[in-house]
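Mods, move this if it's the wrong board.
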Amino acid sequence: MMATSDVDTRGEGPTRPQRTYERIGGREGTSFCQTLIHLLKGNIGTGLLGLPLAVKNAGLVLGPISLLCMGVIAVHCMRLLVKCSHHLSAKMDRPSLSYGEAMEYGMENVSWLRRHSQWGKQTVNLFLIITQLGFCCVYFVFLSDNIKQVVEAANTTTFSCQMNYTNQTQVLVPSFDSRLYMLCFLPPIILLVFTPDLRYLAPLSLVANLMMTASLILIYFYSLTNIKYPIDLPKVGRAKDYPLFFGTAIFAFEGIGVVLPLENKMQRPQRFIPVLYSGMGIVTFLYISLGTVGYMCFGEHIGGSITLNLPNCWTYQAVKLLYCFGIFITFALQFYVPAEILIPPVMERVSQRWKTPVNLLLRSVMVVFTCALAVLIPELDLVISLVGSVSSSFLALIFPPILELMTFHTEGALSPPVAAKNVAISLIGLIGFLAGTYIAVEQIVARNVLKHVETFSGFSVQ
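Not the wrong board. Structure tokens:
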């Protein structure tokens, strides 16, 4: 059996080919701490802010327990992906592999799948595109909802941050529909994604990270200091709402797309597993704690993002604006992945004269597409759950166990219990995908029907 981790090339026996990397931290690669920071950045975003509602859907006791279980499974699947990448890169004499390439070479190990192995890479890339563009849709909805709330409460924003469970000010200034706010964000976001190199955004990205970190600290402080006692919240949620919990939770845990790029660019890749366990341990703690504390603080009134429940005082209005700035800059980072998959093949067929105009046009079309999807489904909580159920479940739960089965099945390296465990994880992901997608779509349709009824009733009264 071949080793599934990095092999010391100074020793005897089979050796792993010397890796050469496209380093992101300098000539010699990223350090332990740098990789840890990148891992945290890749996993902490809007999904974290939606977890209090996820805990509400699962229940005050079942929710945190389910988040812990999902975190353990998600980290295990990340470990499987790294393990298979190590094994296949050594077997194929490649310094490193992407997620799609690992799936392609894994399928080549199965005789009856070998001639269709290219489909494995294309399928993974497809779900990566769906996931990243889904994140961009969520960003549009998040930005519009939070900015709309800040604008509407501007006249009544005070320096007093007293608890306001429903987050309704006495007098709200009439404002536009949230979808019009999305259209207002469209031009600046298009200009943002025109940035030719992400290195130009590095200073803004650093500022955005600091702002988001400060915002999270203030959100934690407010939630912890305003918990309602006695706590009388359901310990277990309704069974019908649990698939929505699954979609939101797996959306938050879907950081598997950054695992191999970070591991490939480390100065000492053999230290990546400790980075993975440390980083995801921190992430899981943040997810469970904010999800639980946020639900305990705001109870049944919790919104699709906890920022929407913060009081309308200047301190927490600033928190919303700071987090919005961070999400705005992060849009370009999330957009980079689908752009790098979709645009280069088109550029190869375009003459040099038209490369720049076509490149900018394609970027614009992709941003308009994500904005159009957000306009069609302007429900933050349901968009998060739908994206998580549809695409994140495949990348984070279904594909990695299948990849391990394909990678090692010819070598007898997998015992029956391990194979059964892999099948069980993939089935959990598949069931979550089916149930989560169905419930999310059903809720989206129901809310749209309700809105149309209310609009029609309003016209009738007038």
